[in-house]
Fold this sequence. Notes:
The chain is α/β, with parallel strands linked by helices.
Amino acid sequence: MKKVRNNGKAWPKNRKEGDGQMRETIAATYNRAYMRKLDKSSISVCSILGVDIAAIDMEWLVGYISGNLPALSGDYICVSNVHTVVTAYEDSEYRKVQNGGIMAIPDGGPLSSLGRRRGFPEMRRTAGPDLMGEIFRISADREYRHFFYGSTEETLEKMAQRLEAEYRGIQIAGMYSPPFGPVAAEKDSEIVGLINTARADFVWVGLGAPKQERWMAGHQGRLKGLMIGVGAGFDYFAGNIRRAPEWMQRNNLEWLYRLKQEPRRLLGRYVYTNARFIWEAYVRGK
């Protein structure tokens, strides 16, 4: 275990901040022991290969999170793309994980494009790195505290330096680089204690899919703070990899840009999952 840093310290768009909060708690769909404080049925969703993808845009998402943040503590958001949706389609347990958080947002452009074709005209891509940037921009004014879990010590330190330089006043409550292998129950309890002691509002999880979603589901209700699985988001903010040009992002081609940067790791995945997605979602309409 490597402890890097611990400072200890649905539509409609015009929904007011705080809307959706309920007096009674509601059991989560995956972890029945977790009692949710928000009614997630108020969030419009488009079912794609059995995964309920939130039919939202970035403006709504940031408003929902900031307006309900205390009630979202202990819950998680999946940042979903073609790869995770196809994986969930083939793995029923992982599908429960994807559907078990407060929402699964359309990180991948093909998901939001398909959603618009299926009757959600205002559905837009809400990419993980973009969401991180939007939250970081308002963090100093709102005194949000952030914990980063995942990646390597080097990447975490590089990211921290860049965040503190770009987002003046951002509060990094802690960072932790876990081992790549399984974590024993005793050590996991130590990690939970470390994160909870940091009193973070956001727990950003960068373990890669599907590991990060399973980790969040397994810690639902155990951690203080809203967990968001952002995959390569840590690498983007650390400067290890670059985002695609805006025109490629707008035309759902960011996957091609990433493939150029990491061909050995991504080629087989993209060939299979993209083809399966087109066949099942577009041709068969699932």
